[in-house]
Design goal:
The complex is a heterodimer of chains A (186) and B (190). Chain A is α/β, with parallel strands linked by helices. In chain A, 23% of the residues lie in helices and 28% in strands. Chain A has helices at residues 18-35, 51-59, 112-122, 181-185, and strands at 11-16, 41-46, 65-72, 88-90, 100-108, 128-136, 149-153, 159-160, 176-179. In chain A, helix 3 (112-122) links the parallel strand 5 (100-108) and strand 6. In chain B, the strands form two sheets. Chain B has a four-stranded mixed beta sheet with strand order 1-4-5-6. Chain B has a two-stranded antiparallel ribbon with strand order 2-3. Chain B contains six helices and six strands. Helix content of chain B is 36%, strand content 13%. Chain B has helices at 19-30, 76-92, 103-112, 119-122, 153-157, 170-189; strands at residues 36-37, 42-46, 52-56, 60-62, 67-71, 98-101. With 190 residues, chain B is α+β, with helices and mostly antiparallel strands. The longest helix of chain B has 20 residues, at 170-189. The chains are: A alpha/beta (186), B alpha+beta (190).
Chain lengths: 186, 190
């Protein structure tokens, strides 16, 4: 993969500006605060893509909350080829039994990872489990999963930025943009 | 669909008609999504005497999701035929959920998993593990089979048609349809 030093030049189109994202995150935080009023929610961020979203979302929720982090291996990753099966690379650091859990995702496309995560986390007997995603790409969906909080429904394009990567690059862009084909076809 | 045919977890050395299907199966295995390979044949066209003229066997059935998936990485001519078949399938079996996975979807999947470089060799003609001289997706079967009642396609859809996992030749498909017809006839007789 070849990317330029000026990451923004690899972006064909800005899909969501920093301001649009900030406004939407604030809106989601407000909604979550209302829905979980009187309760203590545990936000579970799915690494690595959801980190910026998690950092912003947690600060827009006006409730006592806990955070935790999980990472699961992705298909095609070199670290997983030996087993051929999805693996938990980083598990929760605290039990969630009896807790209200909100999974925080950067993007849902096929739903395969989320489907696996939901099955895994439900096995830990939380009181409730819901899903909050910044981006939803329904055109790619294989596993239909109810999404409780959705920031933006996006078109069928390869997007990067605000945590989303291609080859581990572009996560630090402050906006979400469509990657130029030349950036991944080279 | 049989319990034996439903698997969760890695299944190496499996016979597929196309490399893209093998890759897709590996992805499902990776995420522990149960799948069956071509478990059902659905008649989609009959002649005036009720003989089956054309049938369609979606590539995958995902039993946990109650979803059929048809993959296509071939040229546009074949995509049009598949589109027509899927449209026909939806008309005849409205309760059935099927997703047609186009070449662009497969490409996006490969891109997402950092395997874009493999797209060419897993797609189209290059991805054909074995030649399919009378491929099901391009050939329009004209062989009539007896005994199928067009008014009751669900009777055939529910039959156990293809519990094994071998690549389906045209002849095998005809045999499978024949078994379906026999099963439907037997069901209606009892």
């Amino acid at each position: 993969m070849k990317h330029s030093q000026d990451l923004e030049s690899d972006v064909a189109e800005v899909l969501l500006t920093e301001e649009q994202i900030a406004a939407k995150v604030a809106e989601l935080g407000k909604q979550i605060s209302a829905d979980y009023a009187g309760r203590e929610v545990t936000l579970v961020s799915v690494l690595k893509g959801s980190l910026p979203f998690m950092a912003d979302l947690m600060r827009s929720i006006a409730l006592p909350l806990r955070i935790d982090l999980m990472e699961v291996s992705s298909y095609g990753g070199t670290s997983t080829e030996s087993s051929g099966l999805v693996r938990i690379l980083k598990d929760l650091s605290a039990p969630i039994e009896g807790r209200d859990v909100l999974i925080v995702e950067d993007i849902i496309d096929t739903g395969l990872t989320l489907n696996y995560l939901l099955r895994y986390l439900k096995g830990k007997n939380p009181n409730s489990i819901k899903v909050c995603t910044l981006l939803d790409k329904p055109a790619r969906r294989l596993v239909e999963i109810p999404l409780d909080y959705v920031g933006f429904e996006i078109p069928d394009a390869f997007v990067v930025g605000y945590g989303l990567d291609f080859g581990e690059i572009y996560r630090n862009l402050s906006f979400v943009g469509v990657l130029r084909p030349e950036a991944y076809e080279s | 669909m049989t319990d034996e045919a439903t698997t969760r977890g890695l299944r190496p050395n499996y016979a597929f008609a196309h490399a893209s299907e093998a890759e897709f199966a590996h992805i499902l295995d990776f995420y522990e999504v149960a799948w069956e390979y071509e478990p059902n044949v659905f008649p989609i066209l009959w002649d005036l005497d009720g003989n089956v003229l054309e049938s369609f066997a979606p590539d995958f059935y995902l039993p946990d999701l109650e979803l059929f998936v048809e993959l296509t990485t071939l040229q546009q001519r074949l995509v049009r035929k598949k589109n027509r078949k899927v449209r026909r399938l939806r008309e005849l079996y409205p309760g059935l959920r099927i997703k047609l996975f186009y070449a662009r979807d497969f490409r996006a999947l490969m891109l997402k998993y950092g395997r874009a470089a493999l797209v060419s060799e897993l797609s189209g003609t290059l991805g054909q593990v074995m030649p399919r001289p009378q491929a099901d997706d391009s050939a329009e079967p004209t062989d009539g089979l007896d005994g199928l009642d067009r008014a009751d396609p669900a009777a055939v859809a529910g039959a156990e048609l293809h519990p094994h996992h071998e690549r389906r030749t045209r002849a095998a498909r005809r045999r499978a349809v024949r078994r379906a017809v026999e099963a439907a006839a037997q069901a209606s007789a009892t």
